[in-house]
Specification:
Strand content: over 45%
Strand order of the largest sheet: 1-10-7-8-9
Distance between the termini: 23 Å
Number of helices: 1
Structural class: mainly beta
Shape: globular
Radius of gyration: 14 Å
Largest sheet: 5 strands, mixed
Number of strands: 10
């Protein structure tokens, strides 16, 4: 299992995309599905994750995504599929709201099986 814990994220209000990035490991390729982009490093581990149309996917306002409290994602890779489960926490009216989404695609790149995680605490 590979885990990335970071405080690094950017939200682009204009394009409504949120980008979670880890260490400065070398980028090799990307896979995009259901508006989710996974950047892969030399060892086929996920090094960055981007969510397009993030406010629509999580059903929150764009300004709320500027104040993410916590985000975590689990990437489960099997010989057949890649499944990304994401949980986002924001504060709205002094209450913590948790929003969950999943995305699934075929493992057309034949990535090795395993589980990876990305977590951001702000």
């Amino acid at each position: 299992m590979f885990n990335t814990r970071t405080k690094n994220y950017d939200y682009d209000l204009q394009t409504d995309s949120v980008f979670f990035y880890g260490s400065g490991r070398k980028y090799v390729s990307s896979i995009e599905f259901e508006g989710i982009i996974l950047d892969l490093g030399e060892d086929n581990d996920v090094i960055n994750l981007e969510i397009l149309d993030a406010s629509k996917k999580f059903h929150v306002s764009k300004p709320e995504l500027l104040k993410i409290q916590h985000f975590d994602a689990t990437i489960d890779i099997s010989p057949e599929d890649i499944k990304v489960s994401m949980n986002l926490e924001i504060v709205k009216r002094n209450k913590t709201l948790s929003k969950f989404i999943e995305a699934l695609t075929a493992n057309i790149l034949n990535l090795p099986s395993g589980t990876q995680g990305i977590a951001v605490t702000c």
